[in-house]
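Hi support team,

I submitted a single chain yesterday and got back a structure, but I'm not sure I'm reading the token output correctly. Could someone confirm the output below corresponds to the sequence I sent? I've pasted both exactly as they appear in my results page.

Thanks,
R.
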Amino acid sequence: MENWTHILLLTISTLFPITNPFGNAGIFLSLTADQDEAAKRKQALRAAVYMFVILEAFLLGGSYILSFFGLSLGGIRIAGGILIAKYGFDQLQPRRETTHTDEEHAEAKKMKDISFSPLAMPLLAGPGAIASVIGIFSTVTPTMQSYAVVSIGILTTCLICWIVLRESELLMGFLGINGANALTKIMGFLLLCIGVQLAVSGILQVFK
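Hi R., thanks for writing in. Yes, this is the structure output for that exact sequence:
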């Protein structure tokens, strides 16, 4: 019997730090500085929808990807754990160039619609989030119930990201740069622990 509450909380607790909405709020404000409030809210909503579609697509296709490339569950857990741990380590030492280079920022500033790129991908639903979804689903029995629970976790994370981006100006005014960086580091540490645990479980499975 699967522990559905555990799977739901694991999905949210893994995806939320790796999507890092508080850290990306500052980038969002910078990229939409010349837009009015209504336009910013539309961008935030579209980004959350795109994020959900991207992660759901990889959740649905994850098992087919594994079978097509002949990847074992243990192997994907190790690889996913290492990638998640790397994202966590990067957040402990936040630098914008690790997620959004100056060249990407300059290109995005010229775009009228940033909701899909670079906001939804790669900032919110990047390689780390995709690896997390596949890695989490590899730890449960593949049933309709487990798929639904992980999907609810993805949807919940997308809603949180939407709210944070939608109210990014208010939140950044309250937290400030130092506050946002502090939250990013806390989430990075949690992400590092989750990544290490996922990699360890993969190693144990491989040796069994």
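A quick pointer for reading it: DSSP finds nine helices and no strands in the chain. Let us know if anything else looks off.

Best,
Support desk
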